């Protein structure tokens, strides 16, 4: 947890200064990074700031591209396609800590002065050696030997939740424990937004509904109600 906290503090500073946070990984680790990154827009209303990259590209999200992880140069090529620079931060995700795709990406980031971190489930790994903020979560052998999508994958997902959630809270994207910047993209979320506004402002549901219908945004609804109330 102390290492997780150090990484969170650095990631917060990076995003606060208009930088970006990249996750790079292969297989299960890559998919977990993409999952965490993709949830940041609907949950926190933040776009193109937390980006997940997987060895093998988008095709690898749905169908395994096992060979793709063996390239030590492709992660850097993928990062360059986003015009990565020293204002950004890259977190490598690898249960073994030795995935060539991730190792190569972190090595090139270090060479170019880009802040690095990692999440791994082994000690003294190559990705940790090339990370400014290494996180080593030792979960022990898997029930099915070598299948790191289980305990290791669960641990990685929990750490990613900690990182993105804590950073978004520190950026002010959450009020108390409520998602005031979430995207209202379906009926369920509209209903949730009405409940959130009603709870925060302590107002009748119908008034909260009118505010959401008018502003289509929880934060704007709250700010305008408070402003008019004064």
Architecture overview:
The chain is an alpha/beta fold. It contains 11 helices and 5 strands; from the N terminus they run αβααβααβαβαβαααα. Strands 2-1-3-4-5 form a 5-stranded parallel beta sheet, with helices on both faces. Helix 6 links the parallel strand 3 and strand 4. The radius of gyration is 20 Å and the shape is elongated.
In N-to-C order, the SSE pattern is HEHHEHHEHEHEHHHH
Structural class by secondary-structure content: alpha/beta
Question: What kind of oligomer do you see?
Answer: single chain
Query: What gap, in angstroms, lies between the N and C termini?
Result: 43 Å
What is the helix tally?
Answer: 11
Low-confidence stretches: none
According to DSSP, the number of beta strands is 5
Shape: elongated
Helix content: 40-55%
Mean pLDDT: 93
Q: Give the strand line-up of the largest sheet.
A: 2-1-3-4-5
Share of residues in strands: 5-15%
Biggest sheet descriptor: 5 strands, parallel
Rounded radius of gyration (Å): 20 Å
